Amino acid sequence: MLNSMLISVKSCEGKGWRSADDLKFAQSMPLIPIHGGELAQAGSSMPVALIKQNKQWQLVAVCGQTENHCLFVKNGKWLGNYQPQWLSTYPFSFLQLKDQAALVFDQESGLLCEPGEGEAFFNDKGEPNPQLAEAIELLKGYHQKMQVTQKALQALEAAKVIVPWSEELKKAVHCQLTGLFKIDERKLNELDDASYLALRKAQAVTIAYGINFSIHQGHLLQRLARINPAPNSPVENLPDLDTLFNEDSDTITFG
Questions:
Q1: Do 180 and 72 contact (CB within 8 A), yes or no?
Q2: Residue 227, number of CB atoms within 10 A of its CB
Q3: Which of 25, 150, 215, 254 is the most exposed place for a label (fewest CB within 10 A)?
Q4: CA-only gyration radius of the chain, Å
Q5: What angle do CA 112, 113, 118 make, to 5 degrees?
Q6: Full-model pTM
Q7: Do the Cβ atoms of 65 and 223 come closer than 8 Å?
Q8: What is the distance of C-alpha 208 from the center of its chain?
Q9: Residue 118's CB: how many other CB atoms inside 10 A?
Q10: Nearest in space to 146 (alpha carbons), one of 207, 72, 70
């Protein structure tokens, strides 16, 4: 987050906050972070991809085809079968600072209140109030899973199996987003035993195949684009995903 407030007794003095009433905060987010434990459910509801942010790889649910529009959020409600856990932690997150994680609050969320309004962050004893304590506990579990996922993605990078989405793939899902990556399954299958074992130890193999398998859910984006289109976004005749993946250049097999 570009405008985050570090959560401490001093920084939160005289301030209050409120939780989000709906998901309107995510309606401009076509990419939503997920961890590896979500991949099975997320990958059956939307494509999943890798992006590189602040020099680190991140696993994301592809929830839109264009910048600043989430196809899964309409009138503040989620349209899909699976809702990424990150949405439940907002507007809080952990910011990793070397070996420590700092709790921060998104000041651009519109959920920071004037003095005397909303829920106070801390009580008179300097202890987190119940709503903040609940958010912290939720984030602890989420952050641990994100750290495990990060190690898996580092292992995939070391194995040199991460490749960009091809132009053919982007066209198949009518995706104008840039910087999306997937796994080159041919390179994955050609790894020597030691390299493949390193991926298994990092819990990266399941993530690798899960990313590629999820791409077939691109047809759900096309369907959502018809009921929740981005502004000024015409619907076009698009190539069939099954046809695309029969081509040798992007063959995905799961034998």
A1: no
A2: 9
A3: 254
A4: 20
A5: 110
A6: 0.86
A7: no
A8: 15
A9: 16
A10: 207
> 73-74 and 77-78: which strand pairing?
antiparallel
Where b means 16+ CB within 10 Å and e means fewer, 169-192 reads bbebbbbebeebbbbbbeebeeee
Q: What is the pLDDT along the chain (255 residues), one digit of tens a residue?
A: 458 999 999 999 989 999 999 999 999 999 999 999 999 999 999 999 999 998 899 999 999 999 999 999 999 999 999 999 999 999 999 987 777 889 999 999 999 998 778 899 999 999 999 999 999 999 999 999 999 999 999 999 999 999 999 999 999 999 999 999 999 999 999 999 999 999 999 999 999 999 999 999 999 999 999 999 988 765 554 444 444 444 443 333 322
Token representation of residue 41: 């459910």
Tokens of 165: 């989405």
Q: Which residue has the tokens 């309606």?
A: 27
Single-letter amino acid code for the residue at 123: N
Backbone phi and psi for residue 250, each to the nearest 5 degrees, phi listed first: -135, 35
